[in-house]
Amino acid sequence: MYTLKLDIPQFLQEYWQKKPLVIKGAFPQFADPISADELAGLACEEEISSRIVVTKDHDWEVIQGPFEDYDRYGESHWQLLVQAVNHWYPDSQPLVEALRFLPDWRFDDLMVSFATPQGGVGPHVDNYDVFIIQGEGERRWTVGDNTPQHPRGGNANSPLVEDFTPIIDVVLEKGDMLYIPPGFPHCGETLTMAMSYSIGFRAPSQQELVSEIADYLLDNNLGQQRFTSKTEASHPGIVSQASQVGIMSLLSQLSQDPTQYQIILGKLLSQNRFELDICEGEEAYSIEDLQDAFSQGAGVSRIGGLKVLRLEHDATPRLFINGAVHELAHTPTDIIAQLSDNVCLSADEAIAMCQHEEVQHLLLQLINQGLYYLTDDEA
Ligand code: SIN
Ligand code: CO
């Protein structure tokens, strides 16, 4: 259990998406949820996204994982970064839970890094919010203001930016946390062998949104409406202002109809950018197997990173899970809420929920798809 010492209403009002904040002692008695060795082991796996950044004189070299051994990197000047550790290492989930005062749809992943002295990824800007929690060791962080930054060395392809004037310059120690909103340049430098935990939150871009809308319209053969006009321009070569506005309003019409946009948003926001650790069993469970398991005290849990979302004022009762829609027309709203808010269900909770046939079938389906799994103990 990780207890965050933070005035959440004040944080949301003054800092969230606005300005960076250092929270010294955010997690008193912080214990690293994963060891450096275990992290190094995860970075050997093909399906897990990892990279090593080596600090050179005035440069940073990025090597993509998976890795076989780390001997050649030595004792200093490098950092290992592993994405979506919460998908592959269930013991890291409690740390993620500490930041669930923010909605799941925004949550991206837990990235864990192991850094040797002088290791770091270099000065850069992210387009997402990040909370950097310091575990073992110490790292010095500088954060600049959110003014436009210049690509490092004038190289437009570089993810790095030129050095900036810090508005924050702090050494993070075990249990400290640094919050950085999108657009603020920052740079971490490692003082002693360190583990750090970056919990990232991102919202969809216009590109992602438009691509999801296009998929939805094509899949459902919708969006056939065309622009019609009452008047035309007097010159043949001109596209009138009224036509420009009218054509573009075909798009905004889509965004004004909840029966269209809710399904698009539910699917888009419940997807995950990183591979999930799907745990499909060899043989499918039956309803009876499920009932037996619950009556013998098994609980049920969703796999790490799985998003189970409901939409406020949704047109129909349903859940969006990993990009799929699950209609729950006969299920009470409080049960739908429990399913989307709770990562784990105890045996008693699962038994109570399975009184609703739709929910029983949904749980069975999700377990057989490897998106939920039975837990030994009561959760
Ligand atoms: C790091 O831990 O150095 C990278 C995290 C970040 O800058 O977002
Ligand atoms: Co960053």
Descriptive report:
The chain has 379 residues and is an alpha+beta fold. It folds into 3 domains: 8-201, Jelly Rolls; 206-228 and 237-256, no CATH class; 287-375, Malonyl-Coenzyme A Acyl Carrier Protein, domain 2 (3-Layer(aba) Sandwich). Helix content is 26%, strand content 23%. The chain has helices spanning 8-14, 36-42, 85-88, 93-97, 206-219, 241-254, 258-269, 287-295, 333-341, 347-353, 357-368, and strands at 21-23, 50-55, 60-64, 78-82, 107-115, 129-134, 138-144, 166-172, 177-180, 186-192, 194-201, 299-302, 308-309, 318-321, 324-327, 344-345, 372-375. The strands form 4 sheets. Strands 1-9-6-11-5-4-2-3 form an 8-stranded antiparallel sheet. Strands 8-7-10 form a 3-stranded antiparallel sheet, with no helix packed on it. Helix 5 (206-219) packs across helix 7 (258-269). The two termini are 14 Å apart. The chain binds succinic acid and cobalt (II) ion. Succinic acid binds next to strand 6, strand 10 and strand 11.
Q: What's the rounded overall pLDDT mean?
A: 96
Which molecules are bound in this entry?
succinic acid, cobalt (II) ion
**Major sheet attributes:** 8 strands, antiparallel
Which structural class best describes the helix and strand composition?
Answer: alpha+beta
Q: Approximately what portion of the residues adopt beta-strand conformation?
A: 15-25%
How are the elements arranged and paired?
Blueprint: H1 8-14, E1 21-23, H2 36-42, E2 50-55, E3 60-64, E4 78-82, H3 85-88, H4 93-97, E5 107-115, E6 129-134, E7 138-144, E8 166-172, E9 177-180, E10 186-192, E11 194-201, H5 206-219, H6 241-254, H7 258-269, H8 287-295, E12 299-302, E13 308-309, E14 318-321, E15 324-327, H9 333-341, E16 344-345, H10 347-353, H11 357-368, E17 372-375
Antiparallel strand pairs: 1-9, 2-3, 2-4, 4-5, 5-11, 6-9, 6-11, 7-8, 7-10, 12-16, 12-17, 13-14, 14-15
Helix pairs in contact: 5-7, 8-10
This protein binds succinic acid and cobalt (II) ion.
Succinic acid (SIN) binds next to β6, β10 and β11.
